[in-house]
Amino acid sequence: MKGLELAKEFYQTYGETMLREQFPEWQDKIAVGLVGSGSECFGFDDVISQDHDFEPGFCLFLPDESVIDRRVAFQLERAYAKLPKTFSGFARQSLGPVGGNRHGVIRFSDFYLEKVGSPDGNLTTGQWLSLPSYALAEATNGEIFRDDSGEFSAIRKSLLEMPEEIRRKRIAGNLLLMAQSGQYNYNRCLSHGETGAAQLAAIEFVKSAMQVVFLLNRSYMPYYKWSFRALRALPKFSELADTLEFLLTTENTGELQETKYLVIEDVASMIISELQEQEMTKAICGDLEKHAYSVNDSIADADLRNLSIFAAV
């Protein structure tokens, strides 16, 4: 059973009753779900994932103390800790009465402060530029089973909607990295006999290409070990997962060198076509560097546009 499914069934079986019977006056102010760190929050967990941090558990997200004070929060922690110790063949972890960091009672503000550095999800331009995509992914993944007030879900929605000019700045920087590593330095390193450096160039190309692909899908790339799983589930460019894996896992000798360079150019061409489809570039060529600067030039905010093109990577 997947962790997200397990969490939802555990909540529906025991959590709903607990809130309805023990906290009737507070239940409409509490958001319930499974969000945050862990493969189960992305739906990527499997049998191997169950060797650590896997249990029947869910999150009870609370607004600030002016709405639900410490006394009620403590009572909720105690009630959550008293829920059955096993469910559907899985044992709950031996944790303190607060239910641990991933499950149990968590303040809205604590959750979002930990994930994105803002207790209410309102991010400055600097935070939008510097936050790694995996942090934004962890703040917006999983599923909310209940949120009567809509407050917690509203913060999630605001974080999912990356400002367009920030998206363009991130895309521009990663396009330039793709150009430097893949279209220029890959073959150049091999010409110098530096096969290790060439493979590093291929790796940098793949990493930047994946960032661009997720941004073109208006999605966030998760932590690297789940990035290919997430890529295969995207609406656009899911077919690139195998292509990019080929660049990472093959040698840089003989005919493979030429093949890999042609693959790099094919990936570049596909991304350029999508940039044009989304009206993000005015460049008419196959050079990713020119498209990088064209995307950057499309940013209306002069202060943001004039920052280093790498300001968001």
What does this structure look like?
With 313 residues, the protein is α+β, with helices and mostly antiparallel strands. It has 13 helices and 6 strands. The protein has helices at 3-22, 70-81, 108-116, 125-130, 133-140, 151-160, 164-191, 195-216, 227-231, 240-249, 255-277, 288-297, 302-306; strands at residues 31-34, 59-62, 86-87, 90-91, 104-107, 143-146. The strands form 2 sheets. A 4-stranded mixed β-sheet has the order 5-2-1-6, sandwiched between helices. Strands 3-4 form a two-stranded antiparallel ribbon. α3 (108-116) packs antiparallel against α5 (133-140), α7 packs antiparallel against α11 (255-277) and α8 (195-216) packs antiparallel against α10. The longest helix has 28 residues, at 164-191.
Quick overview of this protein structure:
This protein has helices spanning 3-22, 70-81, 108-116, 125-130, 133-140, 151-160, 164-191, 195-216, 227-231, 240-249, 255-277, 288-297, 302-306; strands at residues 31-34, 59-62, 86-87, 90-91, 104-107, 143-146. It is an alpha+beta fold.
